[in-house]
Amino acid sequence: MRRLTWLAAELVRTRSETATARTLSFRVPGWPGHAAGQHLDVRLTAEDGYTAQRSYSMAAPADGDLVELTVETVPDGEVSPYLTEEMRAGDLVEVRGPVGGWFVWRPASKAPVLLVAGGSGIVPLMAMIRERGKAGSRVPFRLVYSLRDQDNRYYAEELRRPAPGLDISYLYTRSAPPGASRPAGRVTLGDLAEGGWPADFEPDCYVCGPTGFVEAAADLLLALGHAPERIRTERFGPTGG
Question: Where are the membrane-spanning stretches (predicted)?
């Protein structure tokens, strides 16, 4: 097994996703590459030697020594406010990865794919969507994206014109925009039945978001008859930001 080491990462560009989320592209000399769905560790070191580190999913497929993250600001956090509010092009952090081998999608797979995202859980799933496009894969994807309201939608412009073979269903939990197909509320059995694949299609299911959302969505997929071994989950909770 390859030993993970800390590498210097230089910020090269940024893009705002929402009022509190920012996409950051880093150049990481020596980066070994990664699969869609993997994550990495980011470490900050203060002048007095104090360090803080957090794990973040990568938002795009491997592209040489470029690594892209999308980070949501955690109020009073130690790492995310620096990444989203203070970092400028040319600034450095340290990264270590890639980490994880279960929650990944590879273009060689031929099974249909169901992606179920809760809030910022869209990030590793977006890497899978982009990997599909980069590879020219014709595997059909369906994305069920649950978020508080329209203003919290990540990658809004890119997903407004999805690639052929990618179908998207938006679910709003706090406030649904005018013309939405359903009222605001949590994900239901009907949402996943309508926006997902029938279980007998044997899709690979990827669910990512806060712990409560992931557990609820996975239980609903099981109730719909999806095989447990085809349901892959990635959850996140309070980490101090």
Answer: none
Instruction: Show contacts of 223-231: CB within 8 Å, 24+ apart.
Output: 223/189, 224/189, 224/192, 224/193, 224/196, 224/199, 225/199, 225/200, 226/199, 227/199, 227/202, 230/111, 230/202, 230/203, 230/204, 230/205, 231/205, 231/207
Q: What is the pTM of this model?
A: 0.95
Beta strand pairing call for 51-57 and 39-45: antiparallel
Tokens of 130: 């982009």
Q: Per DSSP, what are the bridge partners of residue 204?
A: 113
Q: Which domains does the chain have, with CATH numbers?
A: 7-99 (2.40.30.10), 113-236 (3.40.50.80)
| Structural contact between residues 182 and 191, judged by C-beta atoms closer than 8 angstroms | yes
Sheet holding 39-45, edge to edge: 51-57, 39-45, 92-99, 7-16, 21-27, 66-72
